[in-house]
């Protein structure tokens, strides 16, 4: 039976509740009065339930959808301004004992070379990432208790934080590894991770069991309840995501929001981020084999609706998506993008892009300098900020600040100062010129005169060689 507070996945992601929700949404998809009420509620910026949001997802009335898109853009602006946080994935190991049918790292794939970075290789990758200008990483590894035990992941985190090359530093390591025990989550927390990210892949249990036929990941409940264990282990920033294309998107959307509602109901804090991946081509994987693939239009609709349903949750898009798609989704709600990503193990030190060992094909293959310039050309401020995590503003402390809009007083100046560091240390002459003009234009938009003054002083100090200023 559906119970948002239950600790059993079958109850908080309840199949009957999702089916009832979809039937309700179908029955009301042209109910203008109800749709208007839901949109009015969304305008309060307090979010929507999975049922309300599902009605909007089913709705096909052009004027109502136009209102939804406009509201998503407005909420994006209200909460995130014109800032976009930048990160890069770092693949540590592609050894994996699971059989996920959509991923080239599945155990039975004999085409790809298996590789696990040594600590020296991790250090080299980190130096290459620092030399691009990255400050925030998401580490990724397959599940393999022999090759990638938790001790290996912890060693890698230590190595990453220890490398200080020139003016570079990785200031936040987010972790995307398989579901694990409370004790292991506690060890990750103690190692100083930022967000723990685990994609659900699909909330449809029957499909999940078929798509994960072998390996520990086959256990749907253990996987789905991982965020509860992570929070019990003290990690209070967790990141959700489904792999759109595996199952019917409307089912996934309802499941995703139910998961967010569950975390809020039980732990008092919803997901820190939601990622938006879609099934992509890769070695041994043909996306056409999955008949639930979604169009760019539906993808945009999902993005806008997640934005208005969970306004305080960061939204992430990767280089799986093309520049065009990324441009559209940035407006509708995305707050973080990856840049210059390599999705192979050791990819940042290799001259050529090693297509045969990538986890998925990268559509957006531009350099970080090009991504930074592209964002600024569209009026965004690329941000390398990691301040909240380092000031201890995580979990409910972060959410309280966010809900009271206080966070706005930190993000904008932090974005400008971290962008300036990037321009000083890593940018091409053209990007530097564009960026400096943008920073000068943006400083007067900081509400507090005092903060403006501090930012100007810190920018001078950055020119003289100091780094790492933050509010
Ligand atoms: S999705 Fe993750 S767990 Fe599954 S095969 Fe790929 S690396 Fe392994
Ligand atoms: S101040 Fe906090 S919320 Fe704002 S960009 Fe920095 S880390 Fe993110």
From TrEMBL:
SMART domains: BATS
Top-level taxonomic group: Bacteria
Cofactor(s) the protein requires to work: [4Fe-4S] cluster
Stored Gene3D superfamilies: Aldolase class I
GO biological process terms held by the UniProt record: sulfur compound biosynthetic process; water-soluble vitamin biosynthetic process
InterPro entries: Aldolase_TIM, BATS_dom, FeFe-hyd_mat_HydG, rSAM, rSAM_sf, ThiH/NoCL/HydG-like
A molecular function GO annotation: metal ion binding
Domain Biotin and thiamin synthesis-associated: 275-382
Protein name (database record): Iron-only hydrogenase maturation protein HydG
Organism name: Ruminococcus champanellensis (strain DSM 18848 / JCM 17042 / KCTC 15320 / 18P13)
């Amino acid at each position: 039976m559906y119970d948002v507070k239950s600790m059993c996945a079958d109850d908080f992601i309840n199949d009957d509740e999702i089916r009832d929700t979809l039937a309700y949404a179908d029955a009301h998809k042209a109910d203008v009065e109800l749709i208007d009420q839901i949109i009015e509620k969304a305008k309060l910026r307090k979010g929507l339930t999975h049922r309300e949001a599902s009605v909007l997802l089913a709705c096909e009335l052009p004027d109502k959808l136009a209102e939804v898109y406009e509201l998503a853009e407005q909420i994006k602006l209200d909460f995130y301004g014109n800032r976009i946080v930048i990160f890069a994935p770092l693949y540590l190991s592609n050894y994996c004992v699971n059989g996920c049918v959509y991923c080239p790292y599945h155990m039975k794939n004999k085409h790809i070379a298996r590789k696990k970075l040594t600590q020296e290789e991790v250090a080299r990758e980190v130096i290459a990432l620092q030399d691009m200008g990255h400050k925030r990483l998401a580490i990724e590894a397959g599940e393999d208790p022999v090759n990638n035990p938790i001790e290996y992941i912890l060693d890698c985190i230590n190595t990453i934080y220890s490398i200080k090359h020139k003016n570079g530093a990785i200031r936040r390591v987010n972790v995307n590894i398989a579901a694990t025990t409370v004790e292991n989550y506690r060890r990750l927390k103690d190692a100083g991770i930022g967000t723990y990210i685990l994609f659900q892949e699909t909330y449809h249990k029957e499909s999940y069991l078929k798509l994960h036929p072998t390996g520990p990941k086959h256990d749907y409940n253990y996987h789905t309840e991982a965020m509860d264990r992570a929070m019990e282990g003290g990690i209070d920033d967790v990141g959700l995501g489904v792999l759109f294309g595996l199952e019917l998107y409307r089912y996934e959307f309802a499941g995703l929001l139910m998961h967010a509602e569950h975390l809020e109901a039980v732990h008092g804090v919803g997901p820190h981020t939601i990622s938006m991946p879609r099934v992509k081509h890769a070695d041994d994987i043909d996306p056409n084999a999955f008949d639930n693939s979604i169009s760019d239009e539906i993808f945009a609709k999902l993005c806008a609706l997640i934005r208005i349903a969970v306004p305080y949750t960061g939204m992430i898009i990767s280089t799986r998506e093309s520049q065009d798609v990324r441009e559209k989704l940035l407006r509708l709600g995305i707050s973080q993008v990856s840049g210059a990503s390599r999705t192979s193990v050791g990819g940042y030190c290799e001259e050529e892009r090693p297509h045969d060992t990538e986890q998925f094909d990268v559509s957006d293959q531009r350099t970080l300098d090009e991504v930074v310039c592209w964002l600024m050309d569209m009026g965004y401020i690329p941000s390398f900020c990691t301040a909240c995590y380092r000031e201890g503003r995580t979990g409910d402390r972060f959410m309280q600040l966010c809900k009271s809009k206080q966070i706005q007083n930190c993000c904008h100046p932090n974005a400008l100062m971290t962008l300036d560091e990037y321009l000083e240390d890593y940018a091409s002459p053209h990007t530097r010129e564009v960026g400096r003009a943008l920073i000068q234009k943006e400083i007067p938009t900081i509400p507090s005169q005092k903060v403006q003054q501090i930012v100007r002083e810190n920018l001078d100090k950055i020119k003289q060689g100091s780094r790492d200023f933050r509010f």
